[in-house]
Amino acid sequence: MARLNPYINLKDDARAALEFYHSVFGGELTVNTFAEFGQADDPADADKVMHGQLEGDGGIVLMVADTPSHMPPVPETSNISVSLSGGYEDDATLRGYWEKLLASGSEIVPLEVAPWGDAFGMCTDGYGVTWLVNIGGPAQG
User: Fold this and answer.
1) Rounded distance, CA 59 to CA 32, Å?
2) 58: left (phi over 0), alpha (psi -120 to 50) or beta
3) Does the structural domain 82-135 have CATH classification 3.40.50.300?
4) Nearest-5° angle of CA 33, CA 39, CA 43?
5) How far is Cα 58 from Cα 55, in angstroms, rounded to an integer?
6) Given pLDDT bands bounded at 50, 70 and 90, which one contains residue 141?
7) Which domain of life is it from (predicted)?
8) How far is CA 129 from the centre of its chain?
9) pLDDT exceeds cutoff 60 at 117
10) How far is 11 from 76, CA to CA, in rounded Å?
11) 112, 95 in Cβ contact below 8 A?
């Protein structure tokens, strides 16, 4: 089965970001450096994260890496956001994620009932990643 996972590239904050996301989502964290994979052509890259993966509680998978010195710098803005969504039965979990992500950054759109009936909010975390949270309303019927 194929999976689609967000992969976030940061300048030099991957390890701290992964530890932060681990505190938000729980689960199992794996971090490998450029040196561990024999890819530290520049000694300054040796301890940078070549691949970090968080397999969070509830099936969340998030990957984060530092950009090595031989690659162009990470752009300050991106047209990609990470979306967290679930039904009303996930309300407490999603609101918990929202509060933890927001605590490190800033709110773009408050988490409140949107015109389509779901609770929706947007924030940017302390690492510059934009998160969208959508909590589905109770099933109509």
Assistant:
1) 21
2) left
3) no
4) 80
5) 9
6) very low
7) Bacteria
8) 7
9) yes
10) 10
11) no
Torsion on CA atoms 15, 101, 121, 113, rounded to nearest 10: 150
Residue showing tokens 């015109």: 115
For residue 84, give both structure tokens.
């967290």
State the pLDDT at residue 91: 95
Token pair for residue 97? 């994620």
- The CA R_g of the chain, rounded to the nearest whole Å, is 17
Which phi-psi region, left, alpha or beta, contains residue 95 (left: φ > 0; alpha: ψ -120 to 50)? alpha
**Can you read off the two tokens belonging to residue 28?**
């199992």
Distances (CA, A) of 12 to 26, 80, 100, 109: 22, 19, 22, 28
pTM summary value:
0.90
Distance CA 70, CA 8 (A): 18
User: How far is the C-alpha of 141 from the C-alpha of 131, rounded, in Å?
Assistant: 31
| Calpha distance 56→62 (Å, rounded) | 8
